[in-house]
Structure formats: structure tokens, C-alpha cells
Amino acid sequence: MRNNNTYFDNASTSFPKPEILTQIMADFTTIFGGTYGRSAYSKVQTSTALYEAARTRIAYVMNVEEEEKVFFTMNATMGANTLIQTYPFTKDTKVWVSPLEHNAIMRPLYEMSNRIGFKIQVLPHEQGGKIHLEALTKMDKSEFDLIIVNHVSNVSGLIQPVAELGKWCDKDIELWLDCTQSLGSIQCNLDDWGVDAAIFTGHKALMGPTGTGGFFVRNPDKHTHFMYGGTGTNSHSYSMPNTYPEKFEVGTPNMVGVIALGEIIGHRPKNKYSRKAYKELINRLNSNPKITMYSDPSPDSQSTVFSFTHSEYTPSEFAEAIYENYYIELRSGMHCSPLAHKTLGTYPQGSIRISLSPYHTSKDLVYLAECIEALDKEHLQKADEVLNYTTQLSDGYES
Do 204 and 107 fall into the same domain? Predict the structure, then answer.
């Protein structure tokens, strides 16, 4: 019987979720309930306290001291739109992005550039998309006002050198991060790095429910309001309050989602697979002549996401075939990142993406490698044959 974890699309949304998540959400809907700060009775007080505890925990994971400057939105995309559409751009604002940006950044930024007239430029970078710090530091700082960087690429998993970039920016240049793939997966130190703003999501590496996310911004007063409506404060006025979090949190929030996210942060499982098994998976695919890998050049610094292309299949053909034959669930295509694919040379077909979960075992990674190698147009092994073979091979791995 097949008992492997064959879901490898955790960069889209993590699965499975920790079991405690179900209990937390059920408790909210059946026991304490309540909305955010709208009344004085116990249900509201309890729910509001748990909601604010989630803000504290997100700030802790981000390593930011000013937790009141963390704001919740329906997802990271809305967080990005809030930051970008409320920023005081002028036609002379000098905006630079990393070469691996997601459309959650590029589309609202492109829209604002069309409205206002500023230019978007791509930072100097190496072949795989890593920012070329030496080239950057030789450039005139007066040519930069705002730099936006995808901390961990959702295509290749490459980790950008944010600490070094932050030192160069210092207080002269604003630095924003897209932490959608990094928060909960690798260490983030936004205060130490001098990051001015960052977006995050709750349903990926943080293992929370969908419909949760938000942003941190060091100087909220620099931004205008994004939405208008009820906040439960200053209700006598038609003007929006400038207090936090009311400035950016309007209407009834996703109480059950945010509270569950806050509670789950302290219960994220440890990886069941070994780092050795992960490096062997990457090295094994790298040695396959039919496969071209898109990942960090150093497996030691690779995140839990990477992509590849196959010489005999388009990405969509490969994803369909490996699912039909071996039940492996992968993501194929553009991954909402055309800029990244243009940088990597995989535009317009995109790539096949693998993204791991803490619940994968080392044996799961061996099974994945064997299935990829067995998927050949001239010879397809049966899934049970592959599973039996990999079970024997992987006896030496810790689960």
C-alpha cells in the first residue's frame, strides 16, 4: 500500500496542516466566538486578546520590536497592494526590484508606475537571480529611493542576501521584503536588517489557514489610507482614524483565521526529513541529464523550494504525467512570476516546482526522486514497483 506523502506543492499552500489547527478553529466557532474590539462583553474581550496575541507572535517571528506596526490583511497580495498603493510615489521616485519578483509585487507596482510615471528598474544580479552586491555597491546611492526584494524566490527557492543589502541601504534607501516564502521557513531579522516594510502570508510555511496574511511597515504615517469603513473607534466621524491598527484594518477581520494562525505559530512541526536526504535529492536531480535545475547554486543554503525543467516534457505535461502515474502532486507553469522566469530563461513555459513540508520524511524524498527518474516516455514503471524499490533503498534514512 502507498503511504507516502506525495503532496509537494507547499509553496502554494501548506498541506497537511497541524492537527491542532482544526481544534483551534472549532473552539472559536463553538466556544468563545466574538469579533474584534466592538463591545465590552467577555467573548469580544477574549477574541480581541487572542487576535492581538497573534500580532505579537507574527512580530516575534519577523523579529520586529514594534508589534503595533504589524497589520493583518486577507493575504500577502492585499498586504502588498496596501503598501504600494498608499506610498507617496512621484514620477521621480527611483524604484528597483529584484529579478525574481512575484506578481503580487509587480502588478500593483506596474499599475502605480503607469498612473504616476516613475520607472521600475531591476537590480544587478548574477545568472540565477541572486543580487550582485559588488556591482550594486559601486552604483550611486542617489539613483535609489526604494528597493523591493523577494526574500526567497517562489520559483527557485534562492535566498537573497538581505542582511548585506540592508547594510548598504542603511537609512538612505527604503528596503521592502516579500517574505511570503521565507517567514516560518528561514530566519527573518527585519529590525537587524533595517527592513522598512515586509509582506507575509499565514498559509504557507507558518502552517496557518488560508485567508490570512498582512504586512509590517516601519513608518505607517508615511502611507495614506487604503480602505475606508467601520473600525469600532471614532465612530462619530466620517474620517478614518490614523491610529493603529485601525488605519489599515477596516471592517470585521478574519477572526478565526488570525487567531488560529497566532496559536499555530508555537506548534509548527520540526522537519521529519533530514538535511542530508534533501541535499541528496537536489544532487540526484542535478546529475540527471534530462533535467535542468533552478535552485541556489549551493545546496547548503537552498530553501525548501526549487524548480526544474525536463527535456522530454513541457512543465504541464510532466506535472500531469507524474500525477497520473505516481500520484505526485507538483506545481507547473509560471508560478505567477514572469520576471523570475525571464531571469532564469524558462519563459514562457515556466518550470516544474517542488516545495517541501515539515511532514515529508526522508523516504518521501527518495520516492519522489525515483518517480521523477522513472517517468520516461519510453518506459513507465508502475507506482507500486517504484514504491517497493524505494522502500528498500531508504532503510538507511531516518524518517
Answer: yes
